[in-house]
Amino acid sequence: MSPLAPTLAHEFEAALAWWHLAGVDHDFADDATTWLSEPRAASAAAGAQGPGAAPAGAMAPVSQRQDNVARPAAAPLAAPERPASARRDWLGDSPPADLAAFRQWWMETADLSPSHGFPRVPPRGERGAALMVLVAQPEADDRERLLGGPQGRLLAAILAAMGLDESAAYIASALPAHAPMADLPALAAGGMDAVTAHHVRLAAPARVIAFGNGLGPMLGAAADKPLREINYTSGNVPVLSSEALDALMDMPRLKARFWRRWMEWSATN
């Protein structure tokens, strides 16, 4: 006698059971979504023993079987709590009064840089620039010139496409030196946001582009609101937030998205 051909329903149940035994119960894309059904609650299993329940010794359907390994219910992962940082008044009672004084202070102030393995790199440009470009930190190979590597070449191409000469931009970083894995929100809470605010105030640009998703706290952005402008004593400065330059290099679609946002933003600012 030839074996009976399995139905499509049996094949589907067998496939789901195989993945469940392999420990795969979610389909991961940009957001995790439930793929296989959660184990039935104990109360639901007890209720199934009423009228119409399967006789004792009968094998349950594949989708209702449990493997030999006890699997606790998965709890949602909570975001790790960031330890509170002691806020420090980096600027003191006599903050730098102009960009020249700020550059000297930027290069010489003790403990200002969270990284001691990379040199400090000064900002470049003139006060009152048409555009201020703010990045999180210098490139790893920067020495005398900020953004002197691949990110700088991409920025030069972006500025050229905007019709801006690089000399018409003020280019600065939120941190004095390259700092791998820098926790920008924690550093901002520790007082570096006030340093960035003072830096922008001294530079007095017409507009600001912040390349880096973590730069919002450095510019005083609220956690639940996108940053659109910086309000200083001299007036409101429009801000465009974008992904970091290295992300734009790695993902061409981000370049296209940035350019669309720039066109819309520049038309109204």
Topology (elements, then pairings):
Elements: H1 8-21, E1 26-28, E2 32-34, H2 42-47, H3 99-108, E3 131-135, H4 150-162, E4 169-173, H5 184-203, E5 208-211, E6 229-232, E7 235-242, H6 245-250, H7 252-268
Parallel strand pairs: 3-4, 3-5, 5-7
Antiparallel strand pairs: 1-2, 6-7
Characterization of the model:
The chain is of the alpha/beta class. Helix content is about 30%, strand content about 10%. A 5-stranded mixed β-sheet has the order 4-3-5-7-6. The N and C termini lie far apart (about 80 Å).
User: Helices and strands: which structural class?
Assistant: alpha/beta
Low-confidence stretches: 62-70
Number of strand segments: 7
What's the average pLDDT? 80
Report Rg.
28 Å
Morphology call: elongated
Describe the structure in brief.
With 269 residues, this protein is α/β, with parallel strands linked by helices. Helix content is 32%, strand content 12%. It has a five-stranded mixed β-sheet with strand order 4-3-5-7-6. A two-stranded antiparallel ribbon has the order 1-2.
Keywords for this entry:
269 residues; alpha/beta; 5-stranded mixed sheet; two-stranded antiparallel ribbon; 7 helices
